[in-house]
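Q: Protein A?
A:
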Amino acid sequence: MLQFAQAEYLLLILIIPFLFLFYGLSLRIKNRRLERFGEMPIIKRLMPSVSRGRGWAKVTLLSVAVFFFAIGLSRPQLGARVKEQQSRGVEIMVALDVSNSMLAQDYSPNRLERAKLAISRLVDRMKDDRIGLIVFAGQSFVQLPITTDYVSAKVFLNSINTSSVPVQGTAIGDAIRLGIKSFSLESENSRAIVVITDGENHEDDPVQAAADAYGLGVRVFTIGVGSAEGKPIPMENGELLKDKDGNIVVTKLNENMLAEIAEAGGGEYVKAGSRDFGLDTIVDELKNMDQKDFKSVVFVDFDEQYMYFFGIALFFLVLEMLIGDKKTGRKLFI
């Protein structure tokens, strides 16, 4: 599979159309100056060695050289081989609430972005564990299946917003049940679900879902995001979310609910602070869980291909330099 390590250099290819444009404009200006001395058919007869076709040929060769040079700068790579990797750790499924209430600004800039930052830092600390992402509101979806590809985890994490789930609401129980189904078969007794939410459940029975998970060997931890006094919910148009009666909706942290979920799930409840989001406490608990050996297949040893494209670019550049602007008039045979 071909990939580009520095794909931003591919933008240099956009220079090519301007090379033809500038050369065409220069020819036009040159012809207008020559027209001051007489009619063009006569002037062309007086300059038989001038070749317009060679000029366009030189621009074309230069453009091809720029094209391959840009590809070379972008560092194309090929995956040389795959390797089976052995690791030992636990599987963690992070269930992140993306309902509108997570836009409340108890934290800077808001609950959701602060939670994403904390998860990103958690991924940075991981070494051999597997991680997956579930987003939930009125429904739940697996954003990223269980994986050891931490780079992909951060990419998927950055793409999460309140539009990731089309149905609004907060179905914590549904997210827990989906998390149970998302673990691999080989991770028995080394599985954990970390639910990050404000705890305002409106859809189902999350306590029973957590108890079911614990019965299957999955521990459920909860992180409460928000404040007891609550905050209004800002919308994209700059206004605050209101209910059907026109009253401003205030979303509050339901710590009692989250504590019950964690207790039923054999885990622990932590209230997210402005500095310490609570993941450190949960990570310490996860380290005490049974660790399992996992096997995963990863790409290693990417082969750099840039030198071949630089060589092709150099060839066309030298060829462009060897072509003169004028006709030589030489013949191979007399």
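Q: Protein B?
A:
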Amino acid sequence: MLVPEFVLTYAENQPEDYPTTQGAYRFAALVYERTGGKVEIQVSAGGILGEEQSTIEQMQFGGIDFARVSLSSVSDFIPKMNVLQMPYLYTDAEHMWQVLEGDIGDEFLKTLDGHGLVALSWYDAGARNFYSTAKPVETLEDMRGMRVRVQESEVMKAVVEALGASAVPMAYDEVYSALETGVIDGAENNWPSYDSMRHYEVAPYYTVDEHTRVPELQLVSEATWKKLPAEYHEIIRQCARESAVYERKLWAERIREAEERVRRAGCQVIELTLEEKARFREAMIPIYGEYCSDYMDIIEKIIDADK
């Protein structure tokens, strides 16, 4: 029986059937195959190894070897990463991937150098949209006065308030009840979450405004990276990139299935006009100045990448 030279851990906080988790399993299988069974990566899903912030801290001192984390978790200690999750930054998914898979994305991957982490690849997490209980959001004016649930994120609080609504930070598992009882008038999330948490039952108006696309990262602990033989480094990077392509395919399928279920349930899906989306984007100007004033040159490059 083949005995691996390295048995390594991989932290994933999503459930087993989630696209990022399935991407992690694909990554582990590819690494095992291409190192001839010498590197075994054991994926622990469902947050068994801790939430993202704890996972990152453990990786920085070598307690966990690999992980998939949201860019928002990394931006807590690398403010420059806020650039890539600014609201209404990308016109669509194609624009975002053009940025992430080009020189700009490569530069951001290198930003983790010196923080005890090595970035391997980008993962998809879809786009977040607003949904509401009593009325559809079709214009900027419709947002005014609404109480909208947000994550514990200063940027998202600022986004909602810039649109004229009141931001209500709240735990994810409390949102359904808050929507049902009128504590909040709406929330925001991606298609799969809106579907899987059944929020569409109590908030049947889903506005596709795609206000944020927050990419995710596959990371390896720098301590782990240094103890692995150099000949494995490129193998692992290539496997990470291939698993990212696989994860994006699964994510696209998950979005399509979720949207079909939600539409069958009778929910109203609202598409903002280009003119109205431009108004939403214009409302974000103060937020760009507050969070990215030192990086406006990069913002311009990202915007220009779509031209």
